[in-house]
C-alpha cells in the first residue's frame, strides 16, 4: 500500500475535440498534510479532482487514493475520499439534517454510526438542522457541502474553492474546522484563489498551469523562491527626483519623503540598498520591508510557463 494519501503518476486527460486538460501530471499528497493545489482558471485542477472522484475518466496514467488504485479498486478509492465541489449540489427541499442522513445512507453508514448532529454542530448549522436547505445563505450552503463530504468519515478531504462567496468570519470558522480535522489525521487537499489562505494553511503546494505540473514544494520553499523584495524608506527631506543605483531594480516615490525600492535579494541585500540611499545624500528616518509571498511566486511561475 502506498504511504501517500493520493498518488498520481503520468495522469493525462484529453477531452473530445482534442482539448488536453492534464498532461502527464505526477505528484504525491503526503498523509496527514494540508496540501494546496493551485493554478489559474482552466489549468486542470477540477479535472484532476473529478478523476479522483470517479466523475471523469482519465486518458492515461494512474492514480490511487489511500493506497487504492482508482481503476483496480474504485469502491475503496471512492470511500476513502470526500469531495466538496465548487458547485452547490444538494436537494433544496431537504433539510440539512435530512441531507446528511440521506448521504450517510447512500454510503452505507449504519444509523448508530451516523454523525449528523455532530457534523452540523461543527459547521455551525445546528440551529438550521430542520430548515429547508434552500433558505440557507451561500456561506451556510458551503458549510453544509463540507458536512456532506464527511458523512462517511473519509481519511482524505478535497476542498475545491470552498470559501468562494463566504464572508471573512465564516471563512475563519471553516478553516478552524479544517485544521481540527487535520489534527485528527484527515489529509486535506485545498484549491483556492485566496493565495494568502493557501500560504497560511498548507504544508505543501503544487501548482498546475495548462495541464502541466510546474511546481511541487513545501510552502516555505515556494515562498523563498521569490527573488524580489520591497523596502520602503522614509528619508529626512523631500525627494525632488528618485535617485538611481545599480542595486535598485525599481524605485518609486510613494510620498514626498518615501521611496519604495524593489531589489533582487539574491544579488544585493537590504544594507546595500540603504547605503545607496544614503550615498544619494539622504538621511534615513524609517525603514519597512515586505517579504515576498506566495502570490509573487505564483505569478512568476505561471507567467514563465505561459
From TrEMBL:
PROSITE patterns, per database record: ABC_TRANSPORTER_1 (PS00211), ABC_TRANSPORTER_2 (PS50893)
Gene3D superfamilies: P-loop containing nucleotide triphosphate hydrolases
Pfam families named in the record: ABC_tran
Domain named ABC transporter: residues: 6-235
InterPro entries according to UniProt: AAA+_ATPase, ABC_transporter-like_ATP-bd, ABC_transporter-like_CS, ABC_transporter_ATP-binding, P-loop_NTPase
GO MF annotations in UniProt: ATP binding; ATP hydrolysis activity
Protein keywords: ATP-binding, Nucleotide-binding, Transport
Protein name: ABC-2 type transport system ATP-binding protein
Amino acid at each position: 500500500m502506498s504511504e501517500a494519501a493520493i498518488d498520481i503518476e503520468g495522469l493525462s486527460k484529453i477531452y473530445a475535440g482534442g482539448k488536453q486538460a492534464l498532461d502527464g501530471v505526477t505528484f504525491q499528497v503526503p498523509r496527514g498534510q494540508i496540501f494546496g493545489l493551485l493554478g489559474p482558471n482552466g489549468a486542470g485542477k477540477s479535472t484532476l479532482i473529478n478523476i479522483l472522484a470517479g466523475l471523469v475518466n482519465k486518458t492515461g496514467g494512474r492514480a490511487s487514493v489511500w493506497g487504492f488504485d482508482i481503476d483496480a479498486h474504485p469502491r475503496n478509492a471512492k470511500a476513502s475520499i470526500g469531495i466538496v465541489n465548487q458547485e452547490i449540489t444538494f436537494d433544496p427541499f431537504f433539510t440539512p439534517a435530512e441531507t446528511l442522513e440521506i448521504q450517510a445512507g447512500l454510503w452505507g453508514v449504519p444509523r448508530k454510526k451516523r454523525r449528523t448532529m455532530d457534523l452540523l454542530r461543527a459547521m455551525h448549522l445546528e440551529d438550521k438542522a430542520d430548515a429547508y436547505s434552500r433558505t440557507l445563505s451561500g456561506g451556510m450552503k458551503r458549510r453544509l457541502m463540507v458536512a456532506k463530504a464527511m458523512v462517511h468519515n473519509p481519511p482524505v478531504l478535497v476542498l475545491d474553492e470552498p470559501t468562494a462567496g463566504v464572508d471573512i468570519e465564516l471563512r475563519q470558522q471553516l478553516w478552524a474546522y479544517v485544521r481540527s480535522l487535520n489534527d485528527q489525521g484527515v489529509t486535506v487537499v485545498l484549491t483556492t484563489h485566496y493565495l494568502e489562505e493557501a500560504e497560511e494553511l498548507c504544508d505543501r503546494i503544487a501548482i498546475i498551469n495548462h495541464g502541466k505540473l510546474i511546481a511541487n514544494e513545501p510552502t516555505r520553499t515556494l515562498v523563498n523562491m521569490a527573488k524580489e523584495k520591497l523596502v520602503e524608506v522614509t528619508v529626512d527631506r523631500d525627494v525632488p527626483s528618485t535617485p538611481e543605483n545599480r542595486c535598485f531594480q525599481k524605485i518609486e516615490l510613494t510620498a514626498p519623503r518615501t521611496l519604495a525600492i524593489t531589489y533582487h535579494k539574491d544579488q544585493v541585500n537590504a544594507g546595500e540598498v540603504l547605503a545607496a540611499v544614503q550615498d544619494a545624500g539622504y538621511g534615513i528616518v524609517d525603514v519597512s520591508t515586505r517579504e515576498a509571498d506566495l502570490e509573487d511566486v505564483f505569478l512568476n511561475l505561471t507567467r514563465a510557463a505561459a
